[in-house]
Amino acid sequence: MSFQIKQGLFKLDITDYHAILGVPLDADAREIRLRYLKIVPKLHPDTCKVNHPEAKKLASNILACLVNPAYEQLSKEKFRIEHQLLLSQKGKTIAAEGRRLTLASDKAKSLAKAGSKLEEIYHKLVNALAMDQYRDLDTILDKIAQISEINLVYLVFKETQKREIKKQQGIPDSGILPQPQPISPEAKTTQTPTTETKAEKTSPIESCLKRAQEYRENHKYKEATLELRDVLEIEPNNSACHAMLGLIYLEQKSLSLAKIHIAKAWQADPKNPIVIEAKAALDQQNKDSKQTQPKEQKTKSGMFSNLFGKKK
Question: What domains, with CATH codes, occur in the chain?
Answer without folding.
Answer: 8-168 (no CATH), 204-294 (1.25.40.10)
